[in-house]
Amino acid sequence: MKIGFNYGPVTDGIIGQNKVLYDIWGDTVNLSSRMMSTGVNDRIQLPADCVPFLIDHFKLPKRGKISVKGKGEMITHFCTARKPADQIRANLEARAAREMNSADT
């Protein structure tokens, strides 16, 4: 199984009158699909833009550049594991301290 991940705005809606379906569309969905289709079995692949949001909680080794249809060359990462709770806590505390220091200046 391959999994592609992305984040961002989407458009959603209900399709149909007799058989009602719910669906989502947009560049976010398309890129997530591309992450899945260019991915590797038993891995979660994500674009580099997602890394800042997930790095405190997950191990995200760099896969490198891949060719993505409609996007060209993109740097991608794999999400391989959740970090231990004590490391997550330390990462979040360090981030909060950096944000407080930057707000003071």
Characterise the protein shown here.
The protein has 105 residues and is an alpha+beta fold. It contains three helices and eight strands. A four-stranded mixed sheet has the order 1-4-7-6. It starts with a strand and ends with a helix. The model has no long low-confidence stretch (mean pLDDT 94).
Fold topology:
Elements: E1 2-4, E2 11-15, E3 21-25, H1 27-37, E4 43-47, H2 51-54, E5 58-59, E6 62-68, E7 72-79, E8 81-82, H3 85-104
Parallel strand pairs: 1-4
Antiparallel strand pairs: 2-3, 4-7, 5-8, 6-7
Report low-confidence residues grouped into runs of 5 or more.
Answer: none
Give helix % range: 25-40%
User: How large is the radius of gyration?
Assistant: 17 Å
Count, helices: 3
Hey, roughly how much beta strand do the residues contain? 35-45%
Strand order of the largest sheet: 1-4-7-6
Quaternary state reads single chain
Mean pLDDT: 94
Number of strands: 8
Main beta-sheet annotation:
4 strands, mixed
Helix and strand sequence: EEEHEHEEEEH
Coarse morphology: extended
Specify the structural class: alpha+beta
Straight-line N-to-C gap: 47 Å
List the defining traits of the structure above.
single chain; extended; two-stranded antiparallel sheet; 105 residues; 33% helix; alpha+beta
Task: Briefly characterize the structure.
The protein has 3 helices and 8 strands, in the order E-E-E-H-E-H-E-E-E-E-H. It is of the alpha+beta class.
